[in-house]
Amino acid sequence: MNEYLLFDALLATGVFWLAWQTLFAASLFRGVISFMVFGLLISLVWIRLQAPDIALAEAAIGAGVTGALLLSALGRLEDTDSPSFRALPWRSSAFWSGGLVLLLMMIWLAWVSWELPAPGLAAEVEAELDRAGATHPVTAVLLNLRGFDTLLEVAVMLSAVIFIWSLGEAVVPEAPKAHLPGLPALATLLHPIFLLVAIYLLWQGAHAPGGAFPAGAVLGAGGILTLLAGGVHWMQQEDHQRLLRLLLVAGLALFLLLALGGLAATGVFYQLPVAWAGALILLVEVGTALSIALMLMAFYLYGEPSS
Amino acid sequence: MMVIYALLAAALVGLALLGLFTAKHLIRRLLAINVLGSAVFLLLVVIARQAEDLDPVPHAMVLTGIVVSVSTTAVALALILHAADARRRRQPQKQGGADE
Questions:
Q1: Of the residues A38, B41, B76, B89, which has the fewest C-beta atoms closer than 10 A?
Q2: Does the distance separating the beta carbons of B55 and A121 come in below 8 Å?
Q3: Does residue A141 share a domain with residue A78?
C-alpha cells in the first residue's frame, strides 16, 4: 500500500510541475510540449482512479490531437507573434489579493471534493445494464442511458467544424515531407496499426473499456499523421467535398435517426428497443467513431477546403 | 490516495486560473483553459470514486467533456490563426502608406 502512496505522490507532483511548466515556462514551445506530457501523465492518473476509458481518450485526444493542433498553430504563428510572457508583478497589491482569493478557493475546492456526499449511480446503472445493449457500464451510459448527452456532444463538434470552416479558406497544411523524407513511409507503415487499434477499441467497447470515443480519437490521430505526410489529397479536392460533408454529418444523422426511431417505436425520445439495443449501439458507435475521426482531421485544416 | 488527487485537482484549478489571468499570449491562455478543464475532470472523477461502487456516469461525462474541450480548443486556435493572418495582411498596407 505504501509503494502505491509514494507513486501517487510522485505522479501528483509530476503533474503539478508539468502544469506549472505549461503555464509559466519561458518559451511557448516548451509550454506546448509540457502540455502534451501533462496529458500523458494525467492519463496515468485516470488509470489510478480506475477510469481506463478516460485514460484512453485523454492519451489520444488530450495529448495527441490537442498537441498536434497546438503545435501546428504555433508553427504558423511564429513569424508574427513572438512568445511573450508577462512576469508576475509580485509586489502589487492586486496580485496578493487575487492570490489570496485563489488560495481560499483552492482550499475550499479540496475540502468540498472530500466532503461532498457521493451516493453514486452505480446501482441504478447496474440495474439497467441487461436492458441497455452493452455490458460495459460506461458505454451503456454514453450510448443508451444518457445517449442524449452524446448526441448533443457530436452536435457541438459538428458546429465547431462549421464554425472553423466558415472563417475562411483552409490553411493548407504545409507538408513537412520535404524536410522529412521518411515521414510518408512512416505514415503508410503506421496506418494499418492505427486502423487495427481503432477497430479493436470499437469492438471491445460493448463489454470492456474502449468504444467510439477512444476509437475515433485513435483514427483521427492516424488521419492527422497521414494529413501531415501529404497523403490525404481527397479532402482538398473539389469533387469529394459532397462526400466529405456527408461523412462529417453521418454520426449526428445516425444518432438523430435512432432517437426519432425510438420515438416512433416506443413513444419515448431516444428509447432503444431492448431486443435491438446491442446491434443499434454498435451501428451508432461505428458512425460516431468515423465522424469523430473526420471532424478531428477537419479541425486540423483550420478552414474550409477548396473554397 | 484520494486525498492526494483531490489536493492535486484543487491546486491545478488555482494554478490554471493564475495562468489564465496573468498570461499575455493567447495560446498561453488557451493552455490555461485546457489545464483548468483537466482539473475539473479530475475533481469530477475523484468525487465519483468516493461512492461505494464505481459510478460510471461521471466517467461518461468526462469522456464527453474531453471531446468538447478539444472542439473549443480547435475553434479558439482557428480564431487566433485567422486573426494573426488578418493582422499580417493589414500591416504591409500600413507600411506602404507610411512610405508615401
A1: B89
A2: yes
A3: no
**Domain housing B33:** 2-99
Distance from CA of B33 to the nearest CA of A (A): 10
Handedness of CA B57, B63, B67, B73 (dihedral sign): positive
Task: Return the C-alpha cell found at A283.
Answer: 451501428
**Which value does ipTM take for this structure?**
0.89
Percent over 90 (pLDDT), chain B: 29
A18 and A148 co-located in one domain: no
Q: How confident is the model at residue A80 (pLDDT cuts 50, 70, 90)?
A: very low
The verdict on a CB contact (< 8 Å) between B5 and A167 is: no
- Per CB-CB distance under 8 Å, the chain A contacts of B49 are 49-50, 118
Tell me the nearest-neighbour CA distance from B91 into chain A, angstroms: 10
CATH number where B80 lies: 1.10.287.3510
Count up the domains in chain A and report the number. 2
Residue A103, in any domain of the structure: no
Residue A295 lies in a domain: yes
pLDDT, tens digit, 9 for 90 and up, residues A230-281: 767 777 777 788 888 888 888 888 888 888 887 887 777 777 777 777 788 8
**Which residues in B lie closer than 8 A to residue A299 (C-beta atoms)?**
70-71, 74, 78
Residues A132 and A67 both lie in one domain: no
Is A113 within a domain? no
Sole residue written with cell 485513435: A218
Amino acid letter, A236: Q
- Taking CB atoms and an 8 Å limit, are B41 and A164 in contact across chains? no
CB contact under 8 A, A116 and B21: no
Question: How many other β-carbons are positioned within 10 Å of the β-carbon of residue A14?
Answer: 15
pLDDT in tens, A131-156: 777 778 777 777 777 778 888 888 99
Q: B15 and A23: CB-CB below 8 Å?
A: yes
Domain count for chain B: 1
Q: Please give, rounded to a whole number of angstroms, the shortest distance from the CA of A156 to a CA of chain B.
A: 7
Query: Chain A, 33-62: which have a CB under 8 Å from a chain B CB?
Result: 35, 38-39, 42, 45-46, 48-51, 53-54, 57-58, 61-62
List of residues 6+ apart from A224 with CB closer than 8 A:
A65, A68, A296, A297, A300
The per-residue pLDDT for A34 is 93
Taking the C-alpha atoms of residue A38 and residue A19, their distance in angstroms, rounded to an integer, is 7
Domain check: are A58 and A138 in the same one? no
pLDDT higher than threshold 80 for residue A290: yes
Domain hosting A53: range is: 1-85
Residues A168-215: tens digit of each pLDDT: 877 665 655 567 777 778 888 888 898 998 888 888 877 777 778 888
Residue A180 to residues A186, A187, A230, A253, A304, Cα–Cα distance (Å): 10, 12, 12, 39, 27
